[in-house]
Design brief:
By secondary structure, this protein is an alpha+beta fold. Helix content is 52%, strand content 10%. It is built from 14 helices and 6 strands. A 6-stranded mixed β-sheet has the order 3-4-5-2-1-6. The radius of gyration is 23 Å and the shape is elongated. The N and C termini lie far apart (69 Å).
Amino acid sequence: MIEIKPLSTKRLEHSFSTARLCYDLALRNDCDPMKAYLCGVFHDIARELPRDTLLALAKERHIPVNQEEEEEPLLLHGDIAAAVMRENYGIHDEEMLNAVRRHTVGDEEMTVLDKILFIADKTEPLRAYEEAATIREMAFHDLDGALYDATQGEMAYCAGRGLRVHPKTAFMFENFNKKENLYMTVTEKVNIAINAIVEKKGFDLQLLDVAEITTIAQHFIICTAKNRTQSQAIADEITDELSKQNEKPLRVEGYQAGGWILLDYGDIIIHIFLPDEQEYYNLPRLWKDAKFTRFTETGEVLS
């Protein structure tokens, strides 16, 4: 067991603020919210241990220590926090332990939970730097984009203070650059979805830009189908075309009934209505402050 003193009020406030953001991000990114919350609670439990203690604990547990960590043992507090979780609290979930280990400097390959904790730690609402809010809002609809910006900010912070970038952070950033062309832009997703709707003869096609009025998505796509068979066919066409680009919906609602099918792709949410449901719910009226683009049945923008 590792002896841990109570954390300072400031550190506790940061930890619970991180935990709450982890929970919310997990709900949006198809991740276990309670696992994410507990990772947020525990991630800094070893942050206030003396540097020599962190180094000694790491070496006692045969945790690899590189040159950067020898020079700044605070970089080891994630590894020691994971050891505290295991030894003091009996937590053996490797996904959680790895997320806590990686929250400080990242790693070349990051799971969804890893990304959530890494981002939440650096952008929770008590963080005062200017870009924190922007990255935090982005994470609700573009987790990888938020991770990229958070990593870039971490590297800029090190460069501005003449510090060496941790090799794992550098590998993570390099990995992003290698994969950059594999990630679809929001515009590409929107175009694929609109083309799929046009292909299956959806009508009353509208694109709502909601990025400035909500954090739940950047765009809504709304269309109408004549009957349940057509609404399901439109949904199938959209999911099939986006799956070819390795894009899977975070959630699908209303498919069986077909009156209002919702496809949530994080940065875009697609609503497929039957006429009665479209008239009743009238999403354009509810989101009247959004920027609207209307399309013809052939997919051309209406002036």
